């Protein structure tokens, strides 16, 4: 128990966190009340987020985040999110941000949202030490045209603390290659690349993300375990997986943590990392993730040191920043 306690309190690098998806339900409910927005259907009777499955989750997510209307709202959200992460001993966090939710794809509005988020992050870094970097993310089910607008926003704001470009959303819609233009544009602007793949689709979607989008990290990627030649490729090319075990169990990708392939992938030499995805939606925190992995797989501090080192090395920040979290 004493050992679990010190594992829980280890400093952590988190690479896969959706900025709005980290909003505590009480925060969203409070904003809805202030703005007289009706959020019926978003919450269960106990106050937690209500959803049946992943596609329903995406629509509840959009409804909940519709109360985030101004750069000031995002500043408040950023403080709430980073304070919660810091309370879980997270020292460095990369969050997914979308112009689709922040200004509707207009570059000028997007800049104002980013400025507000950045100011709030600097203030929270001063108070808690936590470092924030941003990954601009297009939404797959909004289609390739909207993704191009997102990539243009990303290219315009690359550098400083905006370090990456990615894709999230409904994996059943479209193909990675439909988004290749946007990823090329982001890469040429100097952004590092990651893509959600292999969460809802099979190992083939991970191959497509690598071949067609040329990403260096994969969000989830857990279904790679069904294709051992692909696993070898991930090992050889040091592709890091942003694994979110609690999210996968909450959304029933796996029935329980014992059935989750994170340990098999790690044993085969894949660079695995641990993140929370949308923590209040999935009733998890970084401390919970660490505790549950220690309990399910018997991971000790040496294993967590390896996991966290993988995350620090795969972080999209500059080398000075990396040296502060290694
Ligand atoms: C997601 Cl678009 C989006 N938002 C939050 N979490 C996600 N997971 C996959 N796509
Ligand atoms: Zn995600």
Automatic annotation (TrEMBL):
One Pfam family linked to the record: A_deaminase
Record InterPro entries: A_deaminase_dom, Ado/ade_deaminase, Metal_Hydrolase
Record keywords: Hydrolase, Metal-binding, Zinc
Domain Adenosine deaminase: start-end pairs: 11-326
Cofactor annotation: Zn(2+)
Family note: Belongs to the metallo-dependent hydrolases superfamily. Adenosine and AMP deaminases family.
The name this protein goes by in its record: Adenosine deaminase
Organism, scientific name: Marivita lacus
Lineage of the organism: Bacteria, Pseudomonadati, Pseudomonadota, Alphaproteobacteria, Rhodobacterales
Gene behind this protein: add
